[in-house]
């Protein structure tokens, strides 16, 4: 019930080899600077890459590539080149070494700013330092994980009068 | 783009007075025990209540009560009794002092287990100790904040073959 924020694909890279991890456990922490908390289990191949390079891209996919998203979630970068296996296209980021995924409608280049919660919760605090978005995608059909391979696809948009940020 | 997990309404209580806070900045941290990270700004009335009582309910509303959800987000419990003002019904929780909101389809009774990230990030780690869900609600039309009063309402459900938890 709670994890149904947008599913994201986190890319990391080291030694000329890039990896992709599918993930839903993240939260905004601060607007200025834009900080995000990401839980990346130490059982994932991306954990070591993120810890050593301190850089990643948070890529946001849509339902059009749902099977690739799930495929990246079900395999390990320890044995699989996920870009090749799932036909995803790496594009160079501007400020960091990890690649953007071209097939995602938004890509957020991030640097790790705090690792104090990593040993206890595998929770990395990252700062978004550069954001890319495809302006042609109007109402992105983001994926929201409901558990065990069930996903909700983003539905109708409503606008209410509010002072919320 | 990132905060569009389900909008939740967090209830707290102290001295016979309960409060409601509308919020989207939360993430699952662990399955067992079920831990959730919630960012609650120290500018919110709920911050002090949660810090002192170490108890809250995470209530999950649906689009049917969207205006009440936004109303709770736009007002402060320092001056407003939000249950009375927005016609919401408090129900006693089983294990803690903060009330459930009857109009929400799911209610998670929580205890704060870690406050070490509160001073720096206003991030509380809470453990879900009791969960209530209305079995009559099949595909809950949860709200997902896109910013500035725009919300996405949960859309179609899809099921993909996956080993994800």
Keywords summarizing the entry:
seven-stranded antiparallel beta sheet, 4 helices, homodimer, two-stranded antiparallel sheet, 165 residues
The separation of the N and C termini of chain A measures: 24 Å
Which oligomeric form is depicted?
homodimer
Largest two-chain interface = A-B, 59 and 59 residues
Q: Level of helix content of chain A? A: 10-25%
Instruction: Give the strand tally of chain A.
Output: 11
* Low-confidence parts of chain A: none
The amount of beta strand of chain A, in percent, is 35-45%
Radius of gyration of chain A (Å): 15 Å
Mean pLDDT of chain A: 91
What is the topology, as strand order, of the major beta sheet of chain A? 2-1-5-8-9-4-3
| Count of DSSP-assigned helices of chain A | 4
Structural class, judged by helices and strands of chain A?
Answer: alpha+beta
**Broad shape of chain A:** globular
Give the SSE string of chain A.
EEEEHEHHEEEHEEE
The main sheet of chain A comes to: 7 strands, antiparallel
């Amino acid at each position: 019930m709670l994890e149904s924020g947008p599913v994201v694909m986190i890319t990391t890279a080291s030694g000329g080899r890039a990896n992709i991890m599918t993930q839903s456990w993240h939260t905004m922490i601060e607007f200025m600077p834009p900080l995000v908390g990401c839980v990346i289990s130490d059982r994932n191949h991306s954990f070591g890459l993120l810890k050593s390079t301190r850089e990643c891209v948070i890529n946001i996919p849509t339902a059009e590539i749902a099977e690739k998203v799930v495929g990246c979630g079900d395999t390990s970068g320890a044995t699989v080149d996920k870009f090749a296996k799932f036909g995803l296209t790496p594009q160079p980021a501007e400020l960091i070494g990890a690649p953007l995924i071209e097939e995602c409608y938004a890509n957020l280049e991030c640097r790790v700013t705090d690792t104090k919660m990593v040993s206890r919760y595998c929770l990395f605090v990252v700062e978004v330092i550069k954001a890319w978005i495809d302006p042609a995608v109007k109402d992105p059909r983001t994926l929201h994980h409901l558990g065990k391979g069930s996903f909700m696809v983003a539905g109708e948009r409503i606008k209410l009068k509010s002072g919320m940020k």
